[in-house]
Amino acid sequence: MPEKKTEELTDSATYRKHAERAKADKPPSRASPIGTVARSRAPGLVSRSEMQRHILAQDENLVPGHFGTVYYKPVTVGSVELKLEPLQPSIGTLVHGIDLATDLDDPKVVTFLRELWLERRVIMFRDQNHLTRAQMVQFAKHFGEIGASHGEREHIPNSPAAVSAQIEAPGFPDMLLLSSDADVPHIAGGWHCDATWQPRPPMGSVLLCREAPPVGGDTCFCDCYSMWDGLSEATRQRVEHLAALHVGGVIHQMNGVTPQAVHPVARTHPETGRTTLYVQQGFVRRFAEGHDIPEDEEKALLLEMKMQQGRPENTCRFKWEDGSIAMWDNRAVLHSGSGDFWPHRRMMERLTILDFDESRRTPYYSPGNTEV
Ligand SMILES: [Fe+2]
């Protein structure tokens, strides 16, 4: 099945190595969401090419269209007329009517977007594919210092196992290209905040979709304030002053070293003063050393906390289109990409942003300092 390949992909040795699996007609690994969804969509088929044909036939003739009513709030900021569409009651706002290449020249627009971002945890935009990579960097710089591919520069993954770490955007070393196609499917699945295995994880992330699949590949976001509030009083008291160990994966290794960091279980958001639950499936392995909680109880507590992830009332789901952007607050939301879109292409560009105020970059818990 011919498919266009960018040089950025084929320049990566790891990409070419993974593509061998496709040449051998082996289906995507069943250990990944992409593989399990493919088997669910193409039951009984065992060759990759047959599965691919079967799934693409199901998705044939999909055309873009708009149906139904969108509820939004009209707001004028400076000379920009915005339409704010809430994705869910407590989390996520899609901001219509803005050109991110030009409209942030007005500082009032930047201030408005930052306040909206803090209030809604994640804000999204449509129709921004005209932004060059340089303009995407310019946009992100309004909100913080641009970090490396995974935040702070002390640890920049160079694992030979990581395809995305090897696919470079020429001239933009801090930009992570997250590519997924029929030959080398990839998705950041599982609930996580970005790079919490760093001692000072990135404050936020900006993700631009250059090419969206016609169906699937949505990103879900989960509100960490509600996760904390949703715990029982007894559990909150039990875990409030504990810390947890966050461990990166093989793909996050730098020079063969797997990164890890210890962070508080309850985290004070440095800008809102509110408490979030800073425990997630992606990187948290256990409580940090120094606690006296029996092993069985530790497992039960971690499970109870992780069960807060993905509750429908705490989450919103964003369907990508070509040129969509999401900017989220890693201190207030988890996110999880949906690995269900193989064999379609999905091409994303990501930047991390660090707090301008370096004193706020290390997670902390300050229970007396709530509701700033
Ligand atoms: Fe992520």
Describe the structure.
The protein is 23% helix and 22% strand. The chain starts with 6 loop residues before the first helix and ends in an 18-residue tail after the last strand. It has helices spanning 7-10, 13-23, 33-41, 48-58, 107-120, 133-141, 163-166, 224-229, 233-239, 295-306; strands spanning 73-77, 80-86, 93-96, 122-125, 145-146, 176-180, 204-211, 219-223, 243-247, 260-264, 266-268, 275-277, 284-287, 315-318, 325-329, 333-337, 346-354. It has ten helices and 17 strands. The mean pLDDT is 94. A hairpin with a 6-residue loop joins β2 (80-86) and β3 (93-96). It has 372 residues and is an alpha+beta fold. The strands form four sheets. Strands 1, 2, 3, 4, 5, 6, 7, 15 and 17 form a nine-stranded mixed beta sheet that branches. It has one domain: Clavaminate synthase-like (Double-stranded beta-helix), CATH 3.60.130. It binds fe (ii) ion (FE2). Fe (ii) ion binds next to loops.
